Description:
Layout: H1 2-14, H2 19-32, H3 36-53, H4 56-68, H5 75-87, H6 91-103, H7 110-122, H8 126-138, H9 145-157, H10 161-173, H11 180-192, H12 196-208, H13 215-227, H14 231-243, H15 250-262, H16 266-278, H17 285-298, H18 301-313, H19 320-333, H20 336-348, H21 355-367, H22 371-383, H23 390-402, H24 406-419, H25 425-437, H26 441-453, H27 460-472, H28 476-488, H29 495-507, H30 511-523, H31 530-542, H32 546-558, H33 565-584, H34 589-610, H35 616-628, H36 632-644, H37 651-663, H38 667-679, H39 686-702
Amino acid sequence: xxxxxxxxxxxxxxxxxxxxxxxxxxxxxxxxxxxxxxxxxxxxxxxxxxxxxxxxxxxxxxxxxxxxxxxxxxxxxxxxxxxxxxxxxxxxxxxxxxxxxxxxxxxxxxxxxxxxxxxxxxxxxxxxxxxxxxxxxxxxxxxxxxxxxxxxxxxxxxxxxxxxxxxxxxxxxxxxxxxxxxxxxxxxxxxxxxxxxxxxxxxxxxxxxxxxxxxxxxxxxxxxxxxxxxxxxxxxxxxxxxxxxxxxxxxxxxxxxxxxxxxxxxxxxxxxxxxxxxxxxxxxxxxxxxxxxxxxxxxxxxxxxxxxxxxxxxxxxxxxxxxxxxxxxxxxxxxxxxxxxxxxxxxxxxxxxxxxxxxxxxxxxxxxxxxxxxxxxxxxxxxxxxxxxxxxxxxxxxxxxxxxxxxxxxxxxxxxxxxxxxxxxxxxxxxxxxxxxxxxxxxxxxxxxxxxxxxxxxxxxxxxxxxxxxxxxxxxxxxxxxxxxxxxxxxxxxxxxxxxxxxxxxxxxxxxxxxxxxxxxxxxxxxxxxxxxxxxxxxxxxxxxxxxxxxxxxxxxxxxxxxxxxxxxxxxxxxxxxxxxxxxxxxxxxxxxxxxxxxxxxxxxxxxxxxxxxxxxxxxxxxxxxxxxxxxxxxxxxxxxxxxxxxxxxxxxxxxxxxxxxxxxxxxxxxxxxxxxxxxxxxxxxxxxxxxxxxxxxxxxxx
Length: 703
């Protein structure tokens, strides 16, 4: 009777009959069965049969109906259901099955836990997976090695490295074992976040847990320390890996060579490449590319091409990257014919160049003034179905300008601008820099303004260069306009650009605008250094506002910015000019001399305290001031002090002292100093001759 009933249930299930027919039959079986084992066996067989002929939702529904009849499925049956739901590829169905099981208060095991969480991790639902994990642990489920390992791996796949790391640390402290794969995945995730000390600690912990070191941990550390440019750590872990009996592979070898490349140790790249090849390592295309790049950078194109041929002989097919590298190497050497030949070999090998390849070749043509070849190259790109981008045109325009082909650059610029192109700002930036390179600052400025009116903007470098050149040409207002437009576009000029703008206004005596830009610079949080302060101080000194210059000097020191000898020279020169100005204002000579000496001594004392040594320009201003104040002996003493310090006086120092002697009528001393100057090989300038000749002429007229 039981066998017939059981057979009927399975036939109904196998025919896809579903619930209405099966549930009454199972109810009848439940009432007929004398042992729970027979009922559990029937339930297990029924659910197993449904997994092959029914949908997952229908099977879950039947599972619920059975429980409502009072049939309590075993853990094995629950896992069959969960596995079937997981195979549907829809984590929502798996969670639905889990919710049914949880609703009925059924007990699950570690295998159940793995089935549910893996399904959720596949769809990157890490938070839900963690929630299920926590619930099942609270329900009394004890994860095994596979469950822990699978869960940690799933968290890593979903980017939850911190959580995976925390769980691994916790279970490690509790003495719970996991698979080596779990350690490796956490180490991989941490290394990608450059948390390398933690990776090293995990590697040690893994060893303490009794696992034999494998190549993966070392690989992660070598890769990441290589990216960071920490060669010592790379070599340490590389040697440790070798000492444990692991042979290097192409991946690890490439990490090592890339570290050398990053640090600019090009010769070491070629040296280690030879060692790797001699060791019997089957070098792959990546390693060949790194070595070819190194030889190209060293200018050794013979070896680079030799490696390209060797690749072919080894059965490896050079790709676009290898050929492009060789083309770039030739272009860097200015060897355009061989660059063109390498390009033709690339085409014959049916390796299709990309825009990068064309850009490199175009740049090489431009730098060598090969205008016609550049336009032929653009046509070739079109024939290959490639559209030149804004960078292509920008490189060509920049190359034309640098090779003094400005007219060709303008022609191409006008054609492309009229045609229209994405990211045309690159083109505008190249043309602005092209004009500046050719010395056409006004043209660059007009183009900048025109572009700005169109709502577009050139790049940061072009703006900075334009600002600097406008300042150099004395167009402070133009530079100010560029700076304002940069700020409107949320582009902050650097300290150098601000300094030059402030200096340009100081040169014209416009201290109001100079101060406005100085305060703007400070408010934007830029690091104001001694150069900026010195520029502004010099501006105040030139317009005779020594009080403001001294305030700035004190402010600089209070902010912890140490003045340099140039700052002291500027103030010293300012005080000298103030001395001369007071002469014209009718201030008595005694009063003027007293004030000048006081200021000079104060600055000398401050320099000594700051441990700043005077240089030749400082001595020049100091000696000139002492001569003008009729302190010739002190001036001569400073001159001798300059010589004792091993400094070499220039024509300006000599001229200042010669002028002092002449003003006091000591013509012989002035002439002796002049002869000493000539004997030292220092060429007198026009001012030196003028000072000496005028005084000699006056003496003769007097006599």
